[in-house]
Amino acid sequence: MTAIGARVPRKEDPRLLRGRGRFGDDFSAAGQLWARVVRSPIAHGRVRRVDLSRARRADGVTAAVAAADLPTGLAIPVRLAVRGIDLSGYLQPVLAAGVVRYVGEPLAVVVADDPYAAEDAAELIEIDIDEAPAVVDAEAAARADAPRLFPGGNVAADFTLGYGDAETAFKRAAHVVEIEVAIGRHSGVPLEPRGMLAEPDPGTGSLAIFGMTKVPVFNRDLLATMLGIDPALIHVHAIDAGGGFGVRGEFYPEDYLVPWLARTLGRPVKWAEDRAEHLVAANHSRQQSHKIAAAFDAGGRITALADEVVHDNGAYCRTHGIAVPELTVAMLPGPYRVPAYRGRVRVVLTNKTPCGTYRAPGRYEGTTAREQLLDVAADRLGLDRIELRHRNLLGPAELPHHRPMTTLGTDVVLDTGDYPALMAATAAEMARLGYHAQASRPGPVDRLRGLGVAVFLEKSGLGPCDTAGVMVGETGAVRVLSGGTSLGQGIETVLAQIAADALGVDPQAVDVVNGDTDLQPAGTGSWASRSTVMAGNAVHLAASAVKARATQLAARMLEAAEDDLVVTGGTVSVRGDPAVAVSLGEIAQAASPASPYLRPGEPAGLAAHRRFEVTHMTYPHGVHAALAEVDPATGRVRVLRYLVASEVGRAVNPALVEGQLRGGAAQGIGGALLEEFSYDESGQPTAITFMEYQMPTAAEIPSIDVLLTELSPAPGNPLGVMGAGEGGISAAGAAVASAVRDALGLTGGVERLPLTPPRVRRLAETGQRRKPGRP
Amino acid sequence: MKDMHRIRLRVNGRDHELEVEARRTLADMLRHDLGYTGTHLGCEHGICGACTVLVDGGPVRSCLVFGVQADGTEVSTVEGLSAGEELSDLQQSFSDHHALQCGFCTPGFLLLAEAYLAQRDPAAAPTEAEVRELIASNLCRCTGYQGIIEAVLATADARRWAAGPAAGRAASPAANPAGSPADGPAASPADGPAASPADGPAASPADGP
Questions:
Q1: Residue A117 has pLDDT above 50, yes or no
Q2: Nearest CA distance, A690 vs chain B (angstrom)
Q3: Fewer CB within 10 A of the terminal residue: chain B, N end or C end?
Q4: A690·B47 Cβ contact <8 A
Q5: Which residue of B has its CA nearest to A697?
Q6: What pTM, to 2 d.p., does this model score?
């Protein structure tokens, strides 16, 4: 009996179902003030004046501040610095002083005793900006004569990863296939906007923060540095988060402004972002254009792969720096045998909202480009799409595969799996579920059906380490203190299962606290599909240590040899004699400070803290398949069926893994068909409500089939787990693109995502088509 | 000067009397004046539906209604769905079908579904198409909606059985799987993973190897 692998009900559910969750805007403090951020209405220009005087005199207003009122030189640094590229000239200030570079950039903040009064006062701030030409297209922004966002120009980074002699391989190739693919600007858009309450204690100088998620310890330390105080004075409390997806929990200007105001004013200050703000203020993502080419030998085997990527990063380099473009090119070869590779990326700044990560950063983009290329190549080479992939997928005997590149500071070593077998299993599952039959059945008149297939390679379990504490109370209750954070993914349940498994207790007896910086001051957060791997294995180590300690103490209590004891069902008993037993609670009592069972020098308490370290990531992988129906007259695409096949090493809770895969696929379909942050030529955003930024509803998302496999335990961690947070979205853009291409019978690629009705109609009208629909 | 109005309303069976500014939304009033923070604001422009509450039994986006408009009404929020520590059948069904992840949109879906369950003919078999259309009213960013649809279908079916077992047996959805709206019966993966969560809560904890 093990708690790992069971579909245990989520520990988070009862409070969330009763409305007892505690989200950012749910926290309030006596005497709190409400902050309202005033944002630039202009995409690019010199700030001549920010006049706060009328706002300061308004009813209920306590303070109004602009850049000149803040300490000088405040800029938000890069959290994920890679490749040693200096981005210090492109960082975002907390409040814009001389120049504004995107619509939505914070210029001032007003604090009032009521949120409505704060909004009224914000309207009274007079902003005078000398408008400059805006640049909204990254290709144009990269040109020497483009309007400059920064004195150093608009190209923040230009780097190439790769190995082997790609140039020669292309020259000698039997076939070279090249396409261009663009990915639209979209992002995580969690349903809860951001929010924060900062509560100062003027007596001690300490500060309580409610509203930091994802990487609370990093954000605490950064905030302390920016405020010039000891990090120990800042207590970031654990809260519920209404979805993360990479966006929430990075350090934004408001993460400094709200605590700074609270300390400066000596009053609790609260900020609740509204949706209009979120759509221009929180990280955008994804926008890239790829010029991707593959060289093949006569047998359809890839001899080289090359990609030229233009990454539109918006107006600044934020906390992710250039991690997304780096991941794009580092992960681009995916699960294939690629003897030579060259991936160049130019990171270009434009007058739009700055970008960061969104679930499967770089992989959604790169997988779309690579898989679309393989579809086009299969047609050119006269090969079946699946067959072409089979010829090029790395086989199980070729793993671990050392790809001579690094990403996020780690070597790229594809650790384990059987990619061709999973591809074959996916095809079999599609057939079993009737995908092919349904694709070839005529739909409504004038509709075209197509099947899409795309293979993905993910990465998870980024180190270097995470920490966990496990303690057993004198009632027998188990408490896990983790460095992960709850973002809705069910991490409390997963960690409870892992602790319960090691300790031989019921998961319901385990309480998990995540993301509290006083309880776990060295935690490294939840992101990059790392928590089940990193926090999970740290919990496993700590709980195993508690079990060993419990056995040692029980041996003294029962006057038995440790080897003769078994730990199960919350008790330690003598093997073969279950009546001779002590409960974990009794053992915890025996570990109390004055207990006669403690030897001199031994610490009191039944608890352990452990750190889990890794040097390499582990690489989940899988296949997506989509069945789409296209109306060429209107351009409307409907996804009728969708399958995600994914290898995760070991599913701690299969229901939660399936939920992650389904939810990811739904988001990915949104990015493939609907979601786009559009701008006009002056840099004004034109997707500023949910009427224009269209997220998929239940009408657009079909039931999603899942083929979950646990055939290749990760070799790099004791639990054998891989992350499961991103495989559901990774290949969704690629699979939908593949299905639409198939439906329209295009000879080329789909050119760009999202496949909105006007774009699909244009493809149907002007794209070169083999023949409509599948045979 | 604030334009204040004294109003009375009943929330989850409890009477409240308060002074509220004319422009204050019902959502803000419930959350910040009365402490019903289970009502969530996801967009404040009526699209996402996270703030859905029932006013006199009907679903309302509380971000689009002023607090003063609730004067004299009876409001139901997520906090009132279960009595005591037991989850309601619908709440339990959401948990059983993994119909929530972050839980932020969940109160809105619960109240939307409660209104649907209350107004539908309790003896009629629920169809996936009608539940899907209902669920398309609100946004969820985590689940892909599948669990939510299954949870509502299961609750409708359970309540139908409770209302009259004979009616229930006539057309059990298990025997007649509802097709996906796209494609009719061929599209309904009766043998796919969609079927597995229907095993219910009793099965799941004991399921582990």
A1: yes
A2: 6
A3: N
A4: yes
A5: B136
A6: 0.94
